[in-house]
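yo, KAP NTPase domain-containing protein is done. seq:
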Amino acid sequence: MSIEQVKSEIRRFLGDKDRLALCLRGRWGVGKTHTWETLLAEEFKNNNAYPSRYAYVSLFGLESLGDVRRSLFENTVESAAFKTVKPFEATTSSVSERLSHFASKWRAGAGIIRGIPVIADYSGLAEKAGFLDVRDQIVCFDDLERMSEHLALKDVLGLISLLKEKKRCKVVLLLNSEALEGQDADDFKEQLEKIIDINLMFSPTAQEAAEIAIRDNAALHSKWVGEYAAKLGISNIRTIFKLLRIADRLEEILNGYDERILRQSIHSACLYGFALYQPGDAPPIEYITEERSYAFFSGDKDERTPEEIQWSELLRAYEYRNADAFDIAIFDGIRSGLYDVVRIKREADVLFQQLSLSDQDAAFSKVWDIYHESFDDNTVEFATKLKKAILEYAAAISPRNLSASIGTLKSLGYGEDVDTLIQGYIEKRNDGKEFWSGDPFMPTFHVEDPDVAAAFAKKAAEFSDDLKLKNVLADIVRNGGWNPGALEFIDKHSADDFYEILKFTKGEELRLVVYGLTYFRRISNADETMRSITEKAISALQRIGRESEINRLRVEKFGITL
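structure:
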């Protein structure tokens, strides 16, 4: 039965004049109570619910049948309460005001009858005399499976029968029948057909759960939560509500950033929240946050368990591969409940730089589309736009692509100002000697044009030092990749060398150096060289952390413990 069919049956039940009992069953957190209260409020507002009074009672924490009867009296409200406030408020804040009114009446009445000013035992009055007033109304019992062991299920079911048959009440029972055990489960099955007239199973799909939790007019970031929750198969509405609160917090922190950065944060947050709030249904958080290669998702990794195959398929379909530093900052905030705003924004700035380079690369490729995608006579257009693109998008253009562009301009007869273009490209880049000298670690170098090669060689000659460790580390962080030659170069350095570079590097470069040195910690299939680099890096950072209390705190923010 679809959720719309369930809703239709609930509406029919609310409008029916007969005294019926309805059971709405479903797993914990799927939105039974939320859906019931929403429909109840709508039907009361539209004058389609009958009778006109209502009481909601959670059986959780009630110790006796007397507690249940008293709670019925105390929580009874008139239908008018639903016409002036929001649905959830109708069973919370507005109820307290009405209780005071009812309680005052009962106290006064009892005092007159018994000849005393105020009744001393209000609890007993609410249970006995107050229960006499519970009639001709809709009664909802929730959390049946969570009631006290001192409260017998058969007694509650007997009360439901009494309310229905003798008190002219409609009764609704909300529960997770799967959670009932032992004698309670047997009693429920035995009495179900005798007491319940309408038995509904509430089992929304992930898409339906998202539609229940998220309004049509919700903010864009909330709609992203619905989209991602559906992709992950999250049907627990309480989890979705938690994800919505996380998304609101991230939107507040990242307000003003590129929309793609906010979207990535929410995309990752939904996955992390799923793993934290529903660990039995989601991949383990350790599995999600570990580093994986593309080969892992293509099925090339041997000896994976059936669970790992299922998890990897979920992550592949969700378009999630690895957690970057920005994702880890988001995860740490969700897990601890304390969001490090400075750290999140710092990583968002790095991500923005990467997105900016990606945008520039896409714009440069679009210029080349003029060349590749037609046989039009558009040489002037192509040459003009290519020259402009070389200077405008220099930060995203590889040496190989620059060389090819300069060579093409010469071939087309537009090479008169290539020296100016090459020099402009060089001035717009802030790279070390290894970039200009044809670093063997960079497969994108391959400079063939002689003018480009000569200009690069001249630029490289301006550097007096050989390959710099901090530049190699920074390139790994910026590019998200490395060449085996780069790893060998890093590993040639000792823990003392790492210590020295960490102590004497400042500002933004320090962050890149630390992340570069510790980059391989989260890689599940790290080789011996990666492990060696990591061990020496941790040793150097721990040495720094032991120097002072402030340095201990500094290294801890990078995940280093002493």
